Amino acid sequence: MTVLRLNRRAVLASAGSVLGFGSLAQLSTSTSPPVEGSWSLGRGDPQNTAYTTDSGPTKSVTVSWRYNKHLSSMKAPVIADGTVYLGFHDETVEFVALDAATGEEQWRTKLGDESEVGFPDAAAAIAGDVVLAPFGNRLIAFDRRNGDIRWERQFDEEVNAPTVVDGVVYFVIRGDGVLIALDSETGDTTLEQSVGEWAKGAVAVSEDRVFAVATTDNETSAVVALDTRTGERLWQYTNPLPNHRYAGRCEGNCLRQRCSRRPRDCE
99, 82 in Cβ contact below 8 A? Predict the structure, then answer.
């Protein structure tokens, strides 16, 4: 694992001070105003509403900056305190922090190539001074200040996007249909409970309940509500119609969309 800290403005400011070229430091100062507000979860809040009271741009929209990497384009970046966090692969799999106003790299952590690390296929989540990012079957907690890895957990199947509430990280394991809760500071498991044969997407958390969508053993979809403290299944609503996405039977190797249950059943 390699951490690159590339704060260009700090480097130029230091050079200007040493050489006596005050204007050199000025060259690195962006005219873009700082970015306020936050979007710390892929769906905005623990309830997955994707709702904000911000009005957004009110004038013609132009490109302020562009970060040219092979990004995980299906998943949203997260932002807090003027910094954007996201994972990408470009020959290697990496996680990066960018200045939201200028696009300049603040740090970049190299995790390895795709044969070693899974593709960053789910949105990250910010929890205090760490940012949590799924990479295939791994969940990695990065220090927001410098990109150092605080802790890492590895599972048998892919990790879905995490949801964070009160220092607890909730997510489902895609192929196993298991809901996991971890302490965001240590990575220790606080809860583990099955919700079905297969699960996908970020869970929603409201008060003392966590809600997950899963595929049941008879190939139908269900919404499951669990107690966040005990893992007790409080209720389940099952869709009476078959889950057509996985209705086809597998013969040998097949695409995920044709699997009857879980992708690993197709191997």
Answer: yes
